[in-house]
Specification:
Layout (H helix, E strand, L loop, with lengths): L1 H21 L1 H13 L4 E3 L6 E3 L4 E3 L2 E3 L2 H12 L1
Antiparallel strand pairs: 1-2, 3-4
The chain binds zinc ion.
Length: about 80
């Protein structure tokens, strides 16, 4: 009797694992909203704030949150 329950548990575990590996699309669909909207964040070299790359300004492979910080950071790095 105990052996029967053991095998039932094994079969259930195998079935659960099989279902998990057989349907990776379901779990990926739940993760997609975060992947579908990737907001690449960059760090302002001047103040260290993180801003979306779309709103950031780049100069010499450095990123800045605003025009003022771009000019400050650029002049500061030259000195
Ligand atoms: Zn800044």
């Amino acid at each position: 009797m105990f052996r029967l329950l053991f095998w039932i548990a094994v079969i259930f575990a195998a079935f659960w694992l099989w279902r998990r590996f057989n349907r990776p699309a379901v779990s990926k669909a739940q993760e997609k909203p975060s992947e579908a909207n990737p907001q690449p964040m960059v760090r302002c070299e001047q103040c260290g704030i993180h801003v979306p790359r779309q709103n950031a300004l780049s100069k010499d492979s450095q990123w800045f949150c605003s025009q003022a910080h771009l000019e400050q950071g650029h002049s500061g790095s030259e000195q």
